[in-house]
Fold this protein.
Amino acid sequence: MHLENDRPFADAARRSDLGRLKIVSEGAPAIRRMPDGTVKQVGPLTDTRVWTVPGRAHRPLAAPRDEPRPLASGDHDRLCAFCAGRYLETTPEKTRLVGTDFAELRHVPAGELFDTVAEFRRFANLFEIVSAEYWRENHGFRQPAAVVEWAQRYLSTPEGRAHLESLAAIRAASSGEHVSLEEAALDLLGGSHDVIVARRHVVDGATSDDRLASSGTLTPDEHAAYIAYTVRSLAEIQVAQPHAAYVAVFQNWLRPAGASFEHLHKQLVAVDEHGPQVDHELRLLSHDRALYQHEIADLAVEQGLVVAATEGAVAFAGVGHRYPAFEVYSTSSANLPQEHSAAGIRAVSDLVHALHAATGPLVPTNEEWHYRPPGAPWPMPWRVVLKWRISNPAGFEGGTKIYVNTIDPWELRRRAVASLTALRDAGAIAPDIRIGDECTPADAHLRYAEAARDADDT
Ligand SMILES: [Zn+2]
């Protein structure tokens, strides 16, 4: 929503057409500071109500941790089941990236897992959110011949058979259901909830277990390989699971943000519906194809909330989030991540990497990807939201649906600009990122709807 005189009424008319909550539309601006300093926000895409009350912004960001433990030699790659010394504790690998050029290897056999070092690797989640059984029972999905053949090949070596037997036993123990090894193997190889794991648990040379390797401690090139690999994997899962309406992509970092392991990883989960938030945005888009330009990008420019930009992406301090949140928008005319050029993906990656670096490795975060579901009728931009999980909504929030966020968007932007400037000076983030006031309104021009607009014009 905007502050121009006529806009709230236009918004009210548009929103009441949609039968939505009317309170939002009665002129409450998306963000405003009250005389006492309280900042009130309304999420432009969610209607989430958020208050930041003065005097709470200086609480520590890092989550409380156990005392750091010193690392003995050989510990650094055996700290958790995602570590590079424990490849057999995860399901058979779909792909891995090796070497300085991140060359991709497919279906590495169990007996060869330790012959190379995976910079990144992808495999099915042992404990899926949406299981192989779900697709089989609810959608009649049968694994294609390629997966059946891979399972037979994997079972044909003693190392592969032993690997699958141990994983099948873990699954059977947790589900209470016993199936044949052949069936279990198909489910373990052919799932559509994947994990992408980075090589390091702790940074190179770490001497204690709290020196975690986060997204922000990767080099910009490593991070770009990680993001491009995730985009390719997203496209592969979409093809492999024809009943999927959407593939959710996210990264939970540290336990307060929902991570089971403090080892850098992303997850991709195929789902057969894209969920109510996308539905809601599609309803808004049906009235205004330029929704994200009007409600997000223009608001950020007007309120001084542009954090950084590259040739192809822009980062805002987000308005109306339960947690302090950055929003990285692709400014490309492409919609789905996999429709972006290599340079377009890199542009998004560099900003996401820089914001992780500015956040630091000890702050719990969620990274959430949003993009146009393949079947959606309206154009939507690819955006990545990075949330600082530094507070826990509790009784006040539950009772009122007003969320107290300790850092308002202006303060979030101020902190990020200071950190990013120092990181760029230190050579720790991509050198061509424009930061804070170096950005211009042109940086916040989103092109995701241009192809559709051109089509409308003809
Ligand atoms: Zn680990």
